[in-house]
């Protein structure tokens, strides 16, 4: 009896699912590299937009991969490499062309320090992501690289925005923000990851409205929204530290209580 012939496939279903998120990742790195070209041509507004778009793509590619079950080790490593370029190298070059070049060798050294901190932060993230899932997954260790890439651009974004509340001496402020963000990147300061936010079904419609409103304002008042969002994110850092410590202390006390009960029994 003749057996039915198998259908010929150029790629397996698994490989097909991994192509889409990896394509998103590669598009993101292309956009990140393009921001350097815009900065070199003194088109800093477009350079900022490229980094923002690269950040949005970085937030989508991993979620798409998990949604279609297309995660892979290659995709994970590729994502980290593109993050170094899009949120490490690209912002450093943008700020160097805009302001840090005025400091000469010191400005270039500051750029190098920042890029190295981004690379170290991503290496640590890849190692820690291998550990078992727990409540700590709601927090990052240090500031994530996409947020760091936008935060170091904050002086430039502020200069492009309409929110000129006070004058800034960029000669001192830009190096200071670079050093601060570099420290936060490699620190173990807990920051919210926003990965496992449980939203009640009755509030879903309000969440969708808020997301649409945010992106609508982002399209209309791009620089203003980025400045306000960045300041709000920085304001959340001490709150996340307090929240993390309170949860850790509570769970530690519960563990001690359980051990005491076991001893009694």
Give the gist of this structure.
The chain is mostly helical and 265 residues long.
What can you tell me about this protein's structure?
With 265 residues, this protein is mainly alpha-helical. The protein has a single domain (14-264), classed as Four Helix Bundle (Hemerythrin (Met), subunit A) (Up-down Bundle), CATH 1.20.120.1760. Helices cover 73% and strands 2% of the residues. The chain is built from nine helices and two strands; from the N terminus they run ααααβαααβαα. The chain has helices at 13-40, 44-67, 73-98, 105-128, 145-151, 154-160, 170-186, 204-220, 222-264, and strands spanning 139-141, 190-192. The chain has a two-stranded antiparallel ribbon. Helix 1 (13-40) packs antiparallel against helix 2 (44-67) and helix 2 packs antiparallel against helix 3 (73-98). Mean pLDDT is 83; it is low at 8-12.
Structural class: mainly alpha
Strand order in the sheet with the most strands: 1-2
DSSP strand count: 2
Percent range for β-strand residues: under 5%
Major sheet size, sense and barrel closure: 2 strands, antiparallel
The coarse overall form would be globular
CATH 4th-level superfamily: CDP-alcohol phosphotransferase transmembrane (TM) domain
Calculate the mean pLDDT score and round it: 83
Instruction: Specify Rg, calculated over alpha carbons.
Output: 22 Å
For the termini, the CA-CA separation is 68 Å
- Second rung of CATH, namely the architecture: Up-down Bundle
The CATH topology is Four Helix Bundle (Hemerythrin (Met), subunit A)
The CATH class assignment is Mainly Alpha
Which regions are unreliable across 5 or more consecutive residues at pLDDT < 50? 8-12
What is the tally of helical segments?
Answer: 9
